[in-house]
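User: Structure with zinc ion, tokens only please.
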Amino acid sequence: MNGTRARSRAVKRALVWVILFAMPVRSSLARQSTRYAPAGQLGENAQVRAALAWFAPNLIWINDQQARLTEIPAPAFQEGQRAAVLKSLLSAAGLAVEVDATGNVIGELPGVNEKEVVVLSAHLDTVFPAGTDVRVRHEGSRMLAPGISDNGTGLAALAAVARALHEAQIKPQRTILFVADVGEEGEGNLRGMRAVVDAYRSRLKAVIVLDGAGTDHVTTIALASRRLEVVISGPGGHSWSDFGMPNPINALVRGSVRFINTKVPASPRTTFNLGQIDGGTSINSIPYQARLKVDVRSESESELARLESALRESMAAGVRDEMESPRDRSRGKLEWKVELLGSRPGGELPAASPLLAALRAADAIVENASRIERSSTDANIPLSLGIDAISIGAGGNGGGAHSLQEWYEPAGREMGLKRALLTLLGVADMAPERTR
Ligand SMILES: [Zn+2]
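Assistant:
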């Protein structure tokens, strides 16, 4: 290390102290317990250093766990097999592990103060349906497989952080729950996280979600979203002899074209996606049903509501157009409905929260810079209820999430693991008798 680097380190350390002392949040923490050590000290603590040092010699093991977990299919509502492996990994990290009624794996590291709980979580499920080839290919140092990054990275990190704390015999002040939860993706509708927050709500102080790769961001704003399904039904018939009968696919296409033309504002950013469409039984049959799944997201709840009404109005018009088109429609009637498949509430972490201070302190210690992001993750649930929560990447680099070309590059993973561990201990804190 040269002099300039050493000086810049010293400056950064001093900065951590300045940041921590300047932050009103630490004083609000201090009100709850005067024994809380400033998070900046964590990096100097011998036990914490031992925990951080556990990662480097075990990076291959961590890669192997990630590949092993990724190769166990975990579509929505079928996370059980992968959950069982997480259970054994967390048990091996000295935790008392349970699988709750929803299917979440919960490993408990009791704190001195068991009345306060901090959650570190990673979702078990993937967007890939059963039958997807999830075998991991290696190209150089890169790993490729559907789900390898989202959320193989988070799950491997969850197990690694638990193991590192165990090897360093760290006893936290607050109880830490290591949670591998179900139902984060798609129609899981965050059911796993909903159950965890429900079960621990009165004791829950903070939730740190590990999702995907990277160390470049911290998600503190929960993007609100709705998932809707349109179903249009009719009598169906023969393409030739029943021609003229109203066609649910025609109506769906007519309605979809109207909906696609709905204007959405750039700010508040609002998006929609026609994600899945199906219906019909054969090329020469008038279908008896057509279905469409639509995802709408917005920084504003009122824009979401507006888009949902636009979808309903468009479909009503699409059905009407199809029924009124100048062919003989006397031989059948279309029924239609729009159903809410899921709704993710919005929320935002206060800028002065102790959790964000802990993340910033961890960033300073590992010399990382990260930007605030807005996204739809497991953190939506605690944030919508006013419970401190963030979602962060677990280190390394990844790309192609939710595609069959998904990849993960472990280089730089160590920083992400340290960042997660330091943030976790920053909010869970060390037991006073062990801090020196
Ligand atoms: Zn994810």
